[in-house]
Amino acid sequence: MITIPTKQLEKEFVSQDWDLRVKRPGYLQSRAIVSQAELQPLNISRSVVLKYNSIFWVNDANLYDNAATKNFYDKFIAAFKQDKKWPLKLVQQIDKAAGEAHSFCKYLKHKNWSQATVTEKLTTLKKYKTLLLRIQKYYIVAVPLTNYCEKELQLKNPTLLAGARSYKVLDVDRLHLSLISIKSNSGSKQKEMIRNHVKKYGWIKTAYNIIDNYTEKDVREEIKNISSKKLSGHPHVGNNYILVGLQAGIYLRNRMKEISQQIWFSFEPLAQQLAADLNIKREDFFQMRDEEVVQSLRNNNILVAKRDVKNRHQGYAHGYLNNREILWTGPIVKKLYSHVTKPDKINKNGLEGQVACRGLVQGEAKIILRQAEFNKLKPGDILVTNMTTPDYTVIMKKAGGIVTDEGGLSCHAAIVSRELNIPCIIGTKIATKSLKDGELVEVDANMGIVRKLKSKGKK
């Protein structure tokens, strides 16, 4: 692993055509495992293999080799020529891994880790990493596949995009149905259902080992706003392999995410015990790579310098540049971050994005980046966010319009906005930074433009 930056490597990094796909907070440990998973070659058909050589995190910015992603489109064409049903085989693979993950999560939660031996802990840590490697590798196909299929359908049969739903039912769909069921009850029965719901779906707000507790209060707030209307089902359109590919890509992306959330959430008791064994804080434990944790446990002594852990908390760049693992801290991180996150120029006519659901609406913009801010949104307001996730559904129903920084035509915001017939523009990149709370805006989801308005009147 390369830990000392050089001018040559910096030049190589800067000259790389990076796709800044998402911005997410997270610890080094989980991100390092995820990057390792995404570096694995993935066979999608008899002779077609997908492979990234360059993947990077710079603070919260997740970067992918753009040239490789574009090359995947040609590989998808080749794979479909060999086997029209290859995406469904990946669905079968991830479902098999999901079954093992669910059993493993039960084991993690019910084991008394304070009484476990070092060997048991090391064996479980290895299993934890192995499962994440198996699950997270599907991300390299899920996003490019959905983007490819979206573009093909947009060109050849755009009406089929209305069927852009997950190929199969997801755990988050079951969560939504559970909330509807809870709302239909009352009294002691409802209280019991809420307790069971929180216990079952406690993982829903977890990502990259960041645990944000899902509480009974959250559930009560959700059922206040939730509609009894069920979202449409998960159609299998077997005669159109591109639509099936799109549905499979959506399923892979969301299934991978929710399984990983459950693994990270269930790993927490063991992680806290390992941190205690090493006599370090939980947060410091998660800034250690898993190899460093293993070596430290075997030596019964932490082998990472305190200053290195401190530097990682302040910011780091980690990933792979042409298959070489790199971990940098210090001034170079700020320099690289400025390079990859330099703001796009704002069109004088307004913010431009992709139309997910057509319509024209005016309203007050409300910037909402986390669940704690959900109460800011009033009926008719314009929901402005990085991206939506299933927990956002309860407030999306109140929104007059939806605007996101990220996403494609099969992202959560796009799917739900079409279900609810709410004007929606996705992929603006900078809406959350250029718009302000309470600002009057017009969402022109016919042209794909968000305009700031001076008038206070609402339409």
TrEMBL record:
GO molecular function, one term: ATP binding
Keyword terms, alphabetized: ATP-binding, Nucleotide-binding
One protein family per Pfam: PEP-utilizers
Claim: Nucleotide-binding is one of the keywords in the record: yes
InterPro entries named among the record's database cross-references: PEP-util_enz_mobile_dom, PEP_synth, PEP_util_AS, Phosphohistidine_dom_sf
Domain PEP-utilising enzyme mobile: 378-448
Gene3D superfamilies per record: Phosphohistidine domain
Similarity section: Belongs to the PEP-utilizing enzyme family.
Protein name: PEP-utilising enzyme mobile domain-containing protein
Species for this entry: Candidatus Doudnabacteria bacterium RIFCSPHIGHO2_12_FULL_48_16
